[in-house]
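Q: My labmate handed me this sequence with no annotations at all. I'd like to see what the chain might look like in three dimensions before we decide whether it's worth expressing. Could you predict it?
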Amino acid sequence: MSTDSRYNVVFVLGGPGAGKGTQCQLIQKEFGYVHLSAGELLRNEQNTEGSEYSKEIDNHIRNGTIVPVKITCALLYRAMQGSGKHNFLIDGFPRNKDNLDGWNTEMDKVAKIQCVLFFNCPDQVCVERCLKRGKTSGRTDDNEESLKKRIETYYKSTLPIIAHYKSLNLVAEIHAEQDKTKVFQDVKTVFENFKNS
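A: Here is what I predict for the chain of 197 residues:
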């Protein structure tokens, strides 16, 4: 029995449209992990009347830039505490070095990283999925122009983070262009290994 009382965290990373949200829902159902989407927490906070952060978040989301990490960590920690649970999927975070440093500073004492699930998916597939999703999602960033920026940001900022965790032997890479059932088979193998480790 582990004496580590910190929250268990699995980071879920991949380009926009790689299927992170879809797979997180399946993991949540099958393994009982709580799915926290950094983007969703930020979007909810952005629309919260009287929130101390909403204006700042709004500016960043509109400009396709990354919200300061202190805000994101505060929202993640608040959600973890409020859930009453111990195992979490954090989707779409850390996205850059600033996020990584912030996480290490703010969260290291309260959470430990079990692994980084990396959904590797070709750009073209990601773009098609996002444009399709944009027809119904109501998300302001599911359009060609925002997607170009988001993919660029992903290559420049997020891939080095994945490389960092690879060097720590924490990355489980999943081929995310397959259909979601096949992808989930691969994901299940990763989670079964946690149970047995």
